[in-house]
């Protein structure tokens, strides 16, 4: 009889432990859900065209199908989940164009992160293509550690890691993998 009591006691103990662990798991999931902070934009814009000016002169035009402004979070940012197109104008009226599938601007750092089919080009025929490109707004400087293709009237360069001024007057390549000279000289 004492063996039967031990078996019943063991089965009852296992059953109680299972019930307790399920209820603890349920409570734990509830606590996790309550602690979850959902990001909700404080402002949203659809199909917009924003012009930036300085002393009455247009310095850039930003267009995007959607902008989500997360100003109320601890580290505020603006997201462009459906892509972004930007046209920069220098003082002489020369243009630089930027296009990407996605973008995010970090408000505390003035850094813009462009991702997915990033293209930046000028009317002078310079074109840079990469998958991710950062733009430092304070210094008007672009940079990436990703693979890139740079095309200009002199030829085409392939590499990994590049930084350059917004007007392509200063270009620093880190690792060039290959070059093609359009004049036929190598």
* Oligomeric state of shown chains: single chain
The averaged pLDDT comes out at 82
Number of domains: 2
- Main sheet characteristics: 6 strands, antiparallel, barrel
β-strand amount: over 45%
CATH homologous superfamily assignment of the largest domain: Lipopolysaccharide (LPS) transport protein A like domain
Helix content bin: 10-25%
* Classification by helices and strands: alpha+beta
Order of helices and strands: HEEEEEEEEEEE
What strand order characterises the main sheet? 2-3-6-7-5-4
Uncertain residue ranges: none
Protein name: LPS export ABC transporter periplasmic protein LptC
GO cellular component, one term: plasma membrane
InterPro entries: LipoPS_assembly_LptC-rel (IPR010664), LptC (IPR026265)
Organism: Flavobacterium silvaticum
Write the layout of secondary structure elements.
Layout: H1 2-35, E1 43-54, E2 57-70, E3 77-80, E4 84-89, E5 95-100, E6 102-106, E7 111-122, E8 127-136, E9 141-152, E10 155-165, E11 171-181
Antiparallel strand pairs: 1-2, 2-3, 2-4, 3-6, 4-5, 5-7, 6-7, 7-8, 8-9, 9-10, 10-11
Describe this entry's structure for a reader.
This is LPS export ABC transporter periplasmic protein LptC. It comes from Flavobacterium silvaticum. It holds the Pfam family LptC. InterPro entries: LipoPS_assembly_LptC-rel (IPR010664), LptC (IPR026265). One of its GO terms (molecular function) is lipopolysaccharide transmembrane transporter activity. This protein has 1 helix and 11 strands; from the N terminus they run αβββββββββββ. The protein has a 6-stranded antiparallel beta barrel. By secondary structure, it is of the alpha+beta class. The protein has 2 domains: 1-36; 43-181, Lipopolysaccharide (LPS) transport protein A like domain (lipopolysaccharide transport protein A fold). A hairpin with a 4-residue loop joins strand 7 and strand 8. The mean pLDDT is 82. It is flat.
